[in-house]
Amino acid sequence: MDLVIWCGAQHKDYPCWLAGLYVANQIGAKQAWSFDMEAMCGSMMAALDVAKALMTTHPELETVLLVSGYRNNDLIDPAVPETRFMLDIGSGGSALVLKKNAGRNAILASAFRGDGSLSEMCIVPALGSKAWPPAAGDLARAHFVVPDEPAFKAKLGEVTMPNFYAVIRESLKLSGLSERDLDYLAILHFKRSAHDAVLAELGLKPEQSTYLDEYGHLGQNDQVLSLELGLRDGKIHDGSRIVFVGAGLGFVWAATTIQWGPYSE
Q: Does one domain contain both 247 and 138?
């Protein structure tokens, strides 16, 4: 292992702490260096693209581990009605090993879009540097809130689905493919109507994806879980063209196209 990239949540064991180095030490990757990165629930796709770029430009990087853990459900208060859309969030972890010139399961192109106008519309208002030092009662405020729910819903409704479609199509186009070539969509878990709307927009059948209703939303781990379930259920085969896609709070939309099975340029 030459490099370990932590692409999990910022909510980690300790604040201001590098989880990737801890993981590298725990698994005995003594020669690896590491860094932590996050694009919220778009992190896995961002990490795939960053790792590919680093492996392309650094000859010494032959094997890279992407590792992610997610415990943002700790930061959800069920008594806050404005964050009810987060009640399906669970805990999870995932890991991917990337090997240079492996000859199969190739990472093709990625695409991203961001909208920072949403950055303060869903936040944890306490224990950050903006409200430091902590005041009495801050522990009770250490959970997600939506200060202006009508504005948040209106803005998100305006931009979220168009950006989902845009990054999927751009990732495919940059990979030399079109949506007609897409065989399986590994998409984050969100409400069923939105999941079905994405499939309909892309002309996909229900069996060309997996709805994660038995697992909930596991942050940046959803796409890897969907891949595992797609392989288990026979939805993915050698030759399948797969798109990982998700959206991260803040907001960032991210997609990565993968060619499954034997591959040569």
A: yes
Question: For residues 231 and 237, what is the distance between their CA atoms, to the nearest angstrom?
Answer: 7
Residues 142 and 250 in one domain: yes
CATH number (domain holding residue 192): 3.40.47.10
Indicate the average pLDDT of the chain. Answer: 96
Of 86, 61, 43, 60, nearest in space to 4 by CA: 61
Model pTM?
0.95
If one counts every other C-beta atom within 10 angstroms of the C-beta of residue 221, the result is 28
Residue 195 in contact with residue 209, Cβ under 8 Å? yes
pLDDT at 265: 75
Q: Pick the last residue of a domain from 45, 68, 103.
A: 103
How far is residue 138's CA from residue 174's CA, in Å, rounded to a whole number? 46
Cβ–Cβ < 8 Å for 3, 23: no
Tally of residues, the chain: 265
At 204-231, the pLDDT tens digits run: 999 999 999 999 999 999 999 999 999 9
Q: Which residues contact 119 (CB under 8 A, 6 or more apart)?
A: 250, 251
Sign, CA dihedral 192-215-11-95, equals negative
Residue ranges making up the domain that contains 199: 107-262
Tokens of 92: 């999870």
Q: Spell out the alpha helix ranges (H) of 58-118.
A: none
Domain end residue (candidates: 41, 69, 103):
103
Tens of pLDDT, residues 66-86: 999 999 999 999 999 999 999
122 and 198 inside one domain: yes
Q: 62 CB contacts (<8 Å, ≥6 apart)?
A: 2, 55, 99, 100
- Bridge partner list, 41: 39
139 and 232 belong to one structural domain: yes
